[in-house]
Amino acid sequence: MKTFYLLFLLSVTAAFSQHAKKNELLVPYRDGNLWGLCDTLGRVKVKPFTTGMSMVNFATTPPDFKGRYVIQKNGKISIIDQHKRVLLAETNLDSVQMYLFSKVVVMYKNNKKGLLRDFKMLIPVQYDDVEFAENESFTVEKKGKKGLVNSKGKLIIPIAYTNIYESWSQNSDENSNKFYWIAKNENSDGEEEEVTFTDNRVVGEERPEWYNPPVVGMKIQVTEEEENRQKRIGEKYGKVVSSSINANSGNIDMYIVKMSEGYGVYSINQDKIILKSDDNIEVCGSNNDYTTFLIKKNGQMGLVDETGKVLLDYEYDTIEVAWGNVCILKKGDKKGMFVLNSIYKPVKPKYKEIKILDAIPVSDTWQFGVFEVTTVAGKKGLLGENGVEYFKN
C-alpha cells in the first residue's frame, strides 16, 4: 500500500445565497464620495449621509442578523447599525476589526490591541497581541510573554509564559463545568515547567454547519484495490493524472485521464469516459450536486458539469477558482465571476479587479456573497453575487 496526495475542490454549497425570500441585509452603498445603505437588489434604504464608511469592514451577528458598519473620518472611528444608531461613539482608535458570528470587536491603537464585546470594554488596548482562544477566552501578550483573559475579561493566567494551550485530556469531558489550561515556561536551567489553571467552562453559541469552511486538500491512503483500479483504467484509456472526490461520500468517483489524444473524465459509477477534450481538463468543484470541470477548447476556457451541460461557454482566457466555489473569469484585462451553486447568472468580465469578501449571513441557513470590485476607471465599490453594483460613480 502506498500513500499519494489528492488535491480537490469541495463545493461550499451554502457559502452564497440560494434563497429567494426577501432579506433584511443592508450593505454599504456609495454614491460618489458619500455612503449610505442599500439592500441586495441595490435599492437604497438609507440615503447617503456620510463619508468614510468602510466597504469591507461590516458584519452581521445573530440572532437578528442586522448589519454593523465602521465609519472612519476626521481621525476618529465610530460604528453604527443599519438604523444609523450609534453602537460605538467616535473614538481615537487607529482601526477596528469586526467578525461574523461574533460580538467581539478588535481595537488597534499605536500598535497595541484590545477588545470590545457587545461594544463594552473587555480587554484594554494595551497588549502587543491578542488572540482568540478556546472557552471564549483570549491569550494576551506583552514583550514576548503570554497570559490569558477569560470570557469575563479577567486575567486568570498572569503574563509570564511562553506558551498557553488547553488540556485536551482534561477537557474531553464536556459534562464537566471546569475548563483546564496548561501554561509553559522555561526555568533558569532551561527546562520547561508546566502550570495548570482552571476556569469555568463556557457553553458557546451554536453556529451553522457551513460556518467552518471545508477542507480543500486531503491526504488519503490508497488501497491495493484502488491501485488496481487505476491500473485497469490506465491500460484501457490512459494514464490517471488526477482524481475527483464526491463531497457527500468522501470517496473517489471520477478520474482525469491523459489519453493518446487529449484528456478524458472517467466515471467509476458509469465505468466509462463521460467527457473528452483535446486539451487539459481540471476538476473545478460541485454545482447542484454535479461535479464540474474546467475545459480548454480552441485556446479558450469553459466550465462543464459531469452531464455534459455547459455552465460557462468557451470564451474566457482563464478561469481561476477561489474559495472552492467562486470562478474568476478573465478575458483580456477584465474580470468577471461565476458562483457555483448560486441561482444567479455569471457576471461578464468588466472589472479591473475582483476581491472576494466574507459571505454575509442573513439567517442561520442563508449567506449572501459580496465582492469588492475595481472599475476600469480605478473606482472601488461593492458587487453582490447577483451582479448588482452597490455604487454610483
Automatic annotation (TrEMBL):
Protein name per Swiss-Prot or TrEMBL: WG repeat-containing protein
Keyword Signal: yes
Signal peptide: 1-20
Species for this entry: Flavobacterium cerinum
Entry-linked InterPro entries: WG_beta_rep (IPR032774)
Keywords: Signal
